[in-house]
Design a protein that fits this description.
This protein is mainly beta and about 120 residues long. About 5% of the residues lie in helices and about 55% in strands.
Length: about 120
Amino acid sequence: VQLQASGGGWVQTGGSLRLSCAASGSIFRIIVMGWYRQSPGNPRELVAVITSAGGTNYADSVKGRFTISRDNAKNTVELQMNTLKPDDTAVYYCNAVANDDIQSRRDGRTTTYWGKGTLVTVSS
């Protein structure tokens, strides 16, 4: 599975950006898709994730400002980011947790995939 992210860029405080990520390759079943971010000197952290059933989980710092959505048929996930703050500046990584084949699904085995990251810069 390959994850291709797009949509990063530069924006002023209070602005909006939309990140998109498309999964391609040999895909059997993607269970969870989402976004993580990492800023210099900090560990990678969860931003938002969404299950194939539409369940979502957000970091407290982005609740009410960010919205994650997913198209299961297209294997895409998007992150609408509003009211951006300088603290949101980071490299954003697309993430997918998948069953690689029917046997791994039966066994409960998953594989985690990462995209290359897209930079979001919010200026004050």
